[in-house]
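Re: that backbone. C-alpha cells:
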C-alpha cells in the first residue's frame, strides 16, 4: 500500500510528480514512465555537473572549451525533456529526447578521448536501458540498434581515418574510468530503485482501487436488495389498499343507500331536524367514498392494473361538464368559475372518464384554495412536429404555492401544510392521482405558481391515445 512506503520515498515521488499533467498520473504505466523520465533527467543533470571538474582537470586549451561546451549543452538539452513531457502529455517523446541527449553526449566524449581506449565507453551501455525504462521496449530495441551503428562508425573512423581528436590526457584514464564506473553503478541503482518505487506505488493504487471497487459492488448489491424489498413492499401495500378499499366500499354504499332512504322518510313525515342530520350523514359518507375511490385508483395505478378506455370526443365538452358540475361549489366559496374554449373544436382520442376525473380534481382544488376569486379553465391545442396535443390549463387567483413545494405536491399523501391545525382539509391523494393518470395517457402535468397570487396547473395530452389504452366499445363512442 502507498501508506507503507518510507516517508522520504513518498516525498521523492511527490516531488517528481509536481507539475505533471493529471492525464499522466491516472494511468499506472504512463505514470511510472513519467517518474522515470523526471528522475533520469535530474540524474543526467547531476552527472553533467560532476563532469565539469573532471574535464577541468583532465583537459586543457581548446579541448577543455569544447568538452565543457558539450557537457553543459547536454545538461541544458536534457532539461528540455521534463518540459516536453508536460507539454505533450506523453512519455514517449520525452523519453526519446533524453535518451538522445545521453547518446550524443557519450558519443562526443568517446570520440574525443581515444575512442575504444576511452573511459566513457561504459556510459554507452546505459543508453538502451534508459530508452527501455522511459519509452518502452520498442524504444530500447531502437536505441540498441543506434548504439551498435554508432560503435561501427566510431570503429571505422578510428581505424580508417585520422579525424578524431584527442583532448584528454591518457594518463588520467584510470581515475576517469573509476569515477564514471562508480557514477554508472549509482545511476543504474538509483533508476532501478525509482522504478521499484513507482511499481510498488502503482500496485498499491491498484489494490486500493480494487478495494474501492469491491466496496462499490457491495453497495450496489445492497442497493439492489433494498430496491427489491421496496418493490415487494410497494406491491404488498398496493394489493392491501386495493383489497381494503374494495371491502370498505360495499358497506359504505349500503350506509349511503339506507341514509338516503331515511332522508326520504324524514321528508314524508315532515321531520326537518332529523332530515338535516341524515343529509350530513349522506354527505360525509359520500366524501369518504370519494376518498376510498381515490385510494383504490392510486393503488391500481401503482400496481399497473388500471386500464384506460379510449374513445373519441370533443375536449371542450369534457371541460364544460366539469365546470357546470362544480358551479355550486364555486358559488359557496364566492368564486367565479368560467371556461375559455378553443376557437375551433378539438377532437381527442383518450379516456374520457379519467380525463374528467383529472379535471374535477384540479378545478376542485382551485376552488378549495380560492375564496371570492376567479377560476378559469382554458382549453387549446398545440402542435409539435407531426404530433398534436390538447392542453387544459386551470388558473386560479388563490393562495398560491411556494417555490420549494412545487415538486412535493405531486407526491402521494403529501400536503403543503401538514400541521394538525391546517386550514384546508384533504388527504394529499388528488394531485398524485392526477399525475399518474395523465402520465398513463402519455401526457404531462405541471404547475406555475406565485405565493399569494395564484396558480396555473397545465395538463398536456396527446390527441391520440398511447398504445397501452384499450379502445372503448362502439356504443360508448361520442
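Recovered sequence:
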Amino acid at each position: 500500500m502507498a501508506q507503507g512506503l518510507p516517508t522520504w520515498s513518498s516525498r521523492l515521488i511527490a516531488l517528481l510528480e509536481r507539475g505533471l499533467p493529471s492525464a499522466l498520473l491516472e494511468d499506472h504505466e504512463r505514470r511510472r514512465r513519467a517518474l522515470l523520465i523526471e528522475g533520469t533527467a535530474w540524474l543526467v543533470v547531476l552527472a553533467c555537473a560532476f563532469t565539469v571538474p573532471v574535464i577541468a582537470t583532465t583537459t586543457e586549451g581548446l579541448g577543455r572549451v569544447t568538452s565543457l561546451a558539450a557537457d553543459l549543452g547536454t545538461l541544458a538539452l536534457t532539461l528540455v525533456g521534463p518540459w516536453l513531457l508536460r507539454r505533450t502529455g506523453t512519455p514517449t517523446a520525452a523519453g526519446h529526447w533524453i535518451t538522445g541527449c545521453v547518446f550524443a553526449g557519450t558519443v562526443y566524449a568517446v570520440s574525443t578521448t581515444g575512442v575504444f581506449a576511452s573511459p566513457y565507453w561504459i556510459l554507452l551501455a546505459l543508453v538502451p536501458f534508459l530508452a527501455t525504462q522511459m519509452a518502452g521496449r520498442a524504444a530500447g530495441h531502437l536505441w540498441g540498434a543506434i548504439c551498435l551503428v554508432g560503435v561501427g562508425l566510431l570503429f571505422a573512423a578510428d581505424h580508417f581515418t585520422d579525424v578524431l581528436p584527442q583532448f584528454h590526457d591518457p594518463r588520467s584514464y584510470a581515475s576517469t574510468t573509476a569515477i564514471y564506473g562508480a557514477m554508472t553503478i549509482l545511476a543504474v541503482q538509483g533508476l532501478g530503485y525509482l522504478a521499484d518505487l513507482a511499481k510498488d506505488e502503482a500496485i498499491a493504487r491498484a489494490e486500493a482501487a480494487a478495494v474501492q471497487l469491491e466496496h462499490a459492488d457491495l453497495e450496489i448489491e445492497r442497493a439492489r436488495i433494498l430496491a427489491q424489498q421496496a418493490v415487494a413492499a410497494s406491491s404488498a401495500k398496493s394489493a392491501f389498499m386495493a383489497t381494503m378499499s374494495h371491502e370498505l366500499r360495499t358497506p359504505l354504499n349500503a350506509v349511503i343507500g339506507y341514509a338516503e332512504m331515511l332522508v326520504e322518510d324524514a321528508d314524508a313525515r315532515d321531520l326537518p331536524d332529523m332530515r338535516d342530520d341524515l343529509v350530513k350523514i349522506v354527505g360525509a359518507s359520500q366524501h369518504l367514498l370519494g376518498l376510498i375511490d381515490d385510494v383504490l385508483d392510486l393503488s391500481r395505478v401503482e400496481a399497473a392494473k388500471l386500464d384506460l378506455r379510449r374513445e373519441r370526443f370533443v375536449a371542450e365538452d369534457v371541460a364544460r361538464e366539469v365546470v357546470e358540475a362544480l358551479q355550486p361549489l364555486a358559488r359557496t366559496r364566492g368564486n367565479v368559475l368560467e371556461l375559455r374554449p378553443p376557437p375551433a373544436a378539438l377532437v381527442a382520442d383518450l379516456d374520457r372518464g379519467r380525463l374528467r376525473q383529472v379535471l374535477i380534481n384540479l378545478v376542485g382544488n382551485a376552488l378549495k384554495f380560492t375564496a371570492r376569486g376567479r377560476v378559469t379553465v382554458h382549453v387549446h391545442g398545440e402542435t409539435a412536429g407531426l404530433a398534436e396535443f390538447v392542453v387544459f390549463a386551470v388558473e386560479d387567483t388563490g393562495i398560491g404555492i411556494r417555490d420549494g413545494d412545487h415538486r412535493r405536491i405531486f407526491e402521494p399523501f403529501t400536503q403543503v401544510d401538514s400541521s394538525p391545525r391546517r386550514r384546508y382539509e384533504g388527504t394529499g391523494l388528488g394531485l398524485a392521482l392526477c399525475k399518474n393518470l395523465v402520465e398513463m395517457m402519455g401526457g404531462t402535468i405541471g404547475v406555475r405558481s406565485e405565493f399569494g397570487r395564484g396558480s396555473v396547473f397545465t395538463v398536456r395530452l396527446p390527441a391520440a391515445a398511447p398504445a397501452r389504452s384499450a379502445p372503448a366499445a362502439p356504443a360508448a363512442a361520442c
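Residues 173-268 form the longest helix (96 residues). The chain is about 65% helix and 10% strand.
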